């Protein structure tokens, strides 16, 4: 297969394809928010971006859930899928493709891929015996199980014994190739702790895994033996490939892989690391295809220390959260408060405190008080006519501001969203302190107009830079700030942000032009009143 060399200018990334056994919860929203932030950041860099998300609809878990509700599985999936689509809209997710594994064109891609792997001689029939967790859709080692043969991830679910004829994929054959690959591409699995987990798993010796099921019909038939149904994970991972097809393209591998392959980044939770970092590259090697660039496994959102999940029934409703607090608030909290890669607990008081402190007080008040001072102390409602050269290099805002773009860029590239936020907030907090120390109201009384204008310019420019750099995380608030600063840029406008706003220009302190007409000062984030405890 001839794969066109990927240009530097494209960036394709994926969220997992979510199981539709229930409506989405905050854990699914977490990965998708992070993916949207990465996609928006890549657009700021001027790259052409493809963000893939979607749903994983086959397998026993979905079939059983549908049966328990007395529904046909396809109807059941069709009922659940819109709840994902509408949540992504509520959360302001700019996805490009929504891949459903029950789509007929996905069947064509799976069949073609299976045939390539079959031709490589990597599929054979054998007897599968073992403990299966239907919630994970995965066989478990006996030693991994909790007391009462419960799954370590779905701690309220017992695993089930299976003893059946299955088709196997020859994973063991790829032991050396994978080990070489991990060495050659040390950044393939991130963060480091996850990479170590995978290396130690692989070093223990890889076992072939079964890729078909009997006594299950909710899935694609094995192309060479219709008495078997393809294992849901074999089918699901290929959903990423199907998603790459242009909407009207014929569903062939060649068409799917033409523009965007290999995927730049798979964003996943840590529970599905093995599938993405071991099984998936081995399947691709078998099919003779290039491997993805990077897999990042983030941590779990917990409630009272336990993984939040549909199977455990201890979830937080993201719809309610967004309706109550707005999409920017939810996006900001999860990315600022939890180190991406580590687990993080949700606590409503903390949520309210962080948003009030950072968005309402630090950022919101800064903009508001500065705009009001411009109105009061400057002749017109314009940005003071100061050039960045006129501001001393000793000015603390200029000093931080000039370094910030590069720092934040690196943080986003490493998916260290919390660090990006912290660095930006430092500029915001320093700006508040700077106003208090410089006291433009006194300078004004003393008739030091130029000094007043320098202070106000430096602060407005710092707010602008903060808004720009935060725009992947809080696009609505950043757009409002840009409007109030007199720019016509809306960060939710895909074309505007990708083409007209090259990162190097906007991320440099000093862009704001003197005399630009300012907009009307309005609060950008309304303080949240903590709920009253009766
Ligand atoms: N269908 C598979 C993925 C197939 S990808 C080809 C699947 N789906 S899932 O709906 O169960 O989980 C999807 C993602 O949500 C996973 O990355 C998982 O880690 C993430 N989360 C589920 N619960 C989570 C938390 N409580 N916290 C953070 N993320 C969690 O697995």
List keywords for this structure.
single chain; alpha/beta; six-stranded parallel beta sheet; four-stranded antiparallel beta sheet; 20 helices; binds 5'-O-[(L-methionyl)-sulphamoyl]adenosine; ATP-binding; methionine-tRNA ligase activity
Question: Radius of gyration, rounded?
Answer: 26 Å
Question: What small ligands are held by the chains?
Answer: 5'-O-[(L-methionyl)-sulphamoyl]adenosine
Largest sheet: 6 strands, parallel
Task: Please state the average pLDDT score.
Answer: 93
Short note summarizing the structure:
By secondary structure, this protein is of the alpha/beta class. It has helices spanning 26-44, 60-68, 73-90, 104-119, 175-184, 192-203, 232-237, 239-242, 253-257, 273-286, 318-325, 327-337, 348-377, 396-413, 417-438, 440-445, 449-470, 475-484, 494-499, 503-506, and strands at 10-19, 48-56, 97-100, 123-133, 138-140, 160-169, 189-190, 209-210, 212-213, 221-222, 225-230, 265-269, 295-298, 301-303, 306-307, 344-345.
């Amino acid at each position: 297969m001839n794969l066109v060399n990927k240009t530097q200018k494209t960036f394709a990334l994926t969220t997992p394809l979510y199981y539709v056994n229930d409506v989405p919860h905050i854990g699914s929203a977490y990965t998708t928010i992070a993916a949207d932030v990465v996609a928006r950041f890549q657009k700021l860099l001027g790259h052409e971006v493809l963000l893939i998300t979607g749903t994983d609809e086959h397998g026993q878990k979905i079939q059983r859930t549908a049966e328990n509700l007395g529904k046909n599985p396809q109807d059941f999936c069709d009922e659940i899928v819109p709840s994902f689509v509408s949540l992504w809209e509520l959360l302001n997710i700019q996805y490009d493709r929504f891949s459903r594994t029950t789509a007929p064109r996905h069947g064509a891609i799976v069949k073609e891929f299976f045939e390539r792997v079959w031709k490589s001689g990597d599929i054979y029939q054998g007897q599968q015996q073992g403990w299966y967790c239907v919630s994970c859709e995965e066989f478990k080692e006996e030693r991994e199980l909790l007391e009462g043969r419960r799954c370590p991830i779905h701690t309220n679910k017992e695993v089930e014994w299976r003893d059946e004829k299955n088709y196997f994929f020859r994973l063991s054959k790829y032991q050396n190739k994978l080990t070489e690959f991990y060495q050659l591409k040390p950044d393939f699995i991130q963060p480091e702790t996850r990479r170590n987990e995978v290396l130690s798993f692989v070093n223990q010796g890889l076992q072939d895994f079964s890729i078909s099921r009997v006594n299950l019909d909710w899935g694609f038939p094995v192309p060479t033996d219709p008495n078997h149904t393809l294992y849901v994970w074999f089918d699901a991972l290929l959903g990423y490939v199907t998603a790459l097809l242009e909407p009207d393209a014929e569903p062939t591998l060649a068409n799917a892989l033409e523009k965007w392959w290999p995927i730049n980044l798979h964003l996943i939770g840590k529970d599905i690391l093995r599938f993405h970092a071991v099984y998936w590259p081995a399947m691709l090697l078998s099919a003779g295809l290039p491997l993805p660039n990077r897999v990042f496994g983030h941590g779990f959102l917990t409630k009272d220390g336990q993984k939040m999940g549909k199977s455990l029934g201890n979830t937080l409703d993201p719809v309610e959260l967004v309706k109550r607090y707005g999409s920017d608030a939810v996006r900001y909290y999860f990315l600022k408060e939890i180190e991406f890669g580590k687990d993080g607990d949700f606590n409503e008081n903390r949520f309210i405190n962080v948003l009030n402190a950072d968005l309402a007080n630090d950022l919101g008040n800064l903009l508001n008080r500065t705009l009001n001072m411009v109105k009061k102390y400057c002749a017109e409602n314009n940005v003071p006519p100061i050039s960045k050269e006129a501001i001393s290099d000793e000015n603390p805002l200029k000093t931080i501001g000039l370094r910030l773009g590069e720092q934040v860029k690196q943080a986003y590239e490493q998916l260290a969203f919390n660090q990006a936020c912290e660095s930006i907030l430092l500029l915001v907090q320093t700006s508040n302190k700077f106003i208090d120390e410089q006291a433009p109201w006194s300078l004004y009384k003393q008739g030091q107009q130029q000094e007043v204008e320098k202070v106000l310019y430096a602060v407005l420019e710092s707010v602008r830079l903060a808004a720009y750099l935060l725009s992947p995380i809080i696009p609505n608030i950043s757009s409002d700030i840009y409007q109030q600063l007199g720019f016509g840029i809306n960060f939710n406008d895909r074309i505007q942000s990708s083409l007209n706003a090259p990162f190097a220009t906007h991320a440099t302190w000093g862009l704001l032009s003197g005399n630009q007409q300012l907009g009307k000062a309005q609060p950008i984030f309304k303080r949240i009143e903590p709920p009253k405890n009766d």
